[in-house]
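Re: oxa(dethia)-CoA structure - here you go.
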Amino acid sequence: MDEAISSAAKIPRLSSTITRRTCSLMGVQIVGTGSYVPSNVVTNLQLQDQCPGCDPDWIEQRTGIRERRIAGPDESTCDLSVAAAQKAMAQAGVYAKDVDLLVVGTFTPDYHCPSTACLVQDRLTLDAPAFDISAACSGFMYAVTTAAQYVATGNSKLALVIGADCNSRIVNQTDRTIAPLFGDGAGAVLLAPGTMEQGFKSYQLAADGSGCAMLDRPAGGAKRPVDVAALEAGEHFLRMDGRNVFKWAVRTVAESIEVVLESAQMTIHDISLLVLHQANQRIIDAVATKLGISPDRIFNNVHKYGNTSAASIPLVLDEANSLGMIERGDTILMCGFGAGLTWGTSLFVW
Ligand code: UT7
């Protein structure tokens, strides 16, 4: 049997404790945020028509999701990215000519080749190196910390970082166990040199590939190109062992947050804004309980957009920023987690 198929049966040897390794990177600031979601709203009730056995109340009670945005037939990850980037640039009052680095976190690129970043670079007419980072729902955390290295070293004066995903293109819209969870969107930030008090006070990026089969898309890559058998088996769609990903996420996110707080010698009560990956309201609430805080302390929009993968964190960040919830000097906690398995947690001083 093909290994891609048998990988589904692979037993994850997930470690019982997470790494305690953290890094710090100061001298970086966020000078603009922007986001974009497709105009097409699909409510839980509407989903019921296309997805057999899908119960709208079940979705809301088990996930907190009430609706999601789905890209139109002519919209792609690049289009969402460009719209979010233009808003971030307008908010920061900068021009395309000022951007000297572009990093796009996505696991739903327009093409396998070339990268979505190159398509965005062309559309925005940037004079900048451009590359994608593939870390699924941790994509934005991986992208923003990567771009920050260039800014902190002086090798970028203005870096554009985008988290974008068109999940509707890889999710089986007739599978009630996965279709209700995901939506499409994009968020962007602009990074520039800051003071030595601004930046990533502590961050942790990590991976545990032993859990790769818990959340995967087996066909469509070099290992298993899409053929008729793969299409018939639906192996070109995203698959998830939801229950086990849920348990892994609650434990990993809470522990990773504790590790970065400890390394920064801070407590959860020092944090002004908590931004967690928006996969499921119940995961967010369970993490809050583990951290000993009220779930209300975490700013969410999962009810409006569902899980937008790499877009999830910058979508929340931009919404909070637009509402005036972020002040200079605030410490913002951001944590992304997902397929790989991967996670990224940071304390960012604004
Ligand atoms: O972003 C990447 C990371 N992803 C995540 O963090 C997602 C993590 N996992 C989850 O959020 C949750 O596990 C899910 C939302 C995916 C599932 O919630 P759950 O509470 O773990 O439900 P379950 O999978 O245990 O399913 C319970 C029941 C099942 O029926 P049986 O087997 O008990 O008869 C499902 O078939 O609910 C059924 N079900 C539904 N019923 C009505 C699943 N989806 C639906 C639906 N409508 N849409």
